[in-house]
## 1
Amino acid sequence: MPSKRQLTVAAGYVAASAVYVAVGVWYTDFLFSFFVGLAYLLLVAWLVPLCVRRIF
Amino acid sequence: MPLLLGSYAPDLMSKWFVYGIHIGGWDLKASDPVQFHRGWPGVGFTHSLLYGVVIAFLFWRVLGSKTWAVSFLIGQWAHAITDTGDTVGTMLFFPWTIHIHFGAWAYAGQTGRLTDAAAYFSGPGALWDLVWIVYGIFSWRVLTRSYFERHVFTADAFWGRANRIVPMAALLVAYRAAFFYGTSRWIAWSLWAHVVHHYPYDLSWGGPHWVNAEHSPSLTWLQLVGVGAIVATGAAVVFVSRLEFGRRSWAAIRSRT
């Protein structure tokens, strides 16, 4: 079974996915390219948390 | 990374021209999208087993990486074989230009990317994708940080080189991106097609039948015999080489003892 920490990480990705899906359904161009998905994920799962940690 | 590259390779340079794009006052689109995408003349050879072998050979000889060669080959073959599931199929045994096709789901690339997406996510193709999503969730351990660091990072020199300029945390996110993208787009297109636009599901063989699908002609008996001969030869080569490898391994073990 996954650990608590692993579940927390997974929950973060699920939340990121929910936003991606919401944007994609509204604006389908967002869904066509893997590279757009990669850039989005790097932004929300790495860059934004990194900036938040640096600021606070 | 090479596995992902291989899996995208057949459509990497061609899909935009199949669907068509509008740049300034120009409309760029193949006059016969199906012929261009899967046929010959066209770029259909990118969906053949031979194409994977040629590029894998280049990776092996030019980059000197067997990992990249084998991984690319697995990814490209997976794409080429998977696309035999639709009603057009692929020239799997190019330069033999017959299309191997099982006709499980409708090929609708010629209808444009939105109708194509609506059709794909309404038919058996959507179920096929779902199988891999569920399989990925059951294999969740491969997405963990420890698996990435112990097995993936160490197996492919690409990650080490990338790590000189990109932190490990970002590489881990990039590694997870393929599964994230595949799963998220499946959910998004399904919602778009069935909640927003109410396209009907048709999971019957060859569906959805509401779309104007393209079809390749059925294979003749003679062609089926030829395909059977190629597959049997391939299986025999694999079997004999495994036997030979086994013998050599035993000989090496005996010589050591």
## 2
Amino acid sequence: MRENIYLSLALVMAPLSLAAIGGAPSIFAPMQHETVDIYHWLTAREFVEIFAVAKFAPGPGAMVSTLIGYKVAGWLGALVSTLALFLPSSLLCLAVTQAWNRHRGKLWHKAVEDGLGPIAAGLMFAGVLAIFRLAEAGPLSWLVAIVVGVILSLRSKVHPFALLALGAAVFAGVWLSGFQATGF
Amino acid sequence: MMKQPGSEVRLDQIYWVFCSIGAASFGGGITGWIHREIVHKRAWLSDDDMLSGIALSQIVPGANVTNTCVYVGNRLRGLPGAVAALVGLMTVPFWATIVVYSLWDQISSVPLLQAVVDGVAASAVGLNLRLAYVGARRSARRLTSFAIMLATFTAIGLLHWPILPVLFVLAPLSIALAWPRGGVDA
């Protein structure tokens, strides 16, 4: 069962891809169980560290799979693991999207679109809350997020990179002045 | 002002937009950025189109952001568009996470760097807040839509009920409420 490490990686990640209902956070627990407890590819501590790395680097949280693949089997492992985690769900999403688009213009399509709008908005608010709660965000994070949101609403031409830099500068400034208020 | 989807958008344009989104995607604020780049700045899709895509992306299993990419790419240029968007989104993060991992011992010993990344992540969440606000304003056009939005937020954000059962109840209800009055489906 473990002769081919690439196959094992794919067999662990691919089912998780389709199990990630409501987004990647829902599969971190089973992913840890598979890779730490069952396959012993890494220790629990290494898993937590990889989680922190994925949070620090750009990209979806599910990039955890890339790092597990990299740790277990180098660059090729990283590639196999990434594809195995992202391809199945993407193909399913593609099929759903194409079916959805085929019916564009029909009356019920408009109703479904109008009906899903408020759901998406509610999910976005819930998502903001979830991100901050997961990260144990402090008041400074909330403040920066709200200020950025307001700036964007008032001056829509601002380049997002400028806003990201603003957040970085505020946090760095607060940290340098010695406050422990960050804790995103 | 809305372009006909797919008429002018080139694959390399899709790739590069998502490449920049991927490079800047710290801390989970990516959906707001996609909305900004695709709807607001380039007018490749409408608000309603994008919001329904976001909702679909959350219902279908998988990372929400990659699903949103697939939706947008496919909407603009079909399968090649979806591939361009997905590959674009993953290009920088794939290399960046591995580089960060290799340098992690050095990085984690510099708390200032951590503060900088936390600040970037907080700003990124601000992009999401802005998108949520856009959605909320559109929902506020109708009392029932607004109620559905609040119910979704309360059930998932505050009560932490599992997303699928909640959506299985609220989505059909919301669609029924949005059904055009007296309209007969074609």
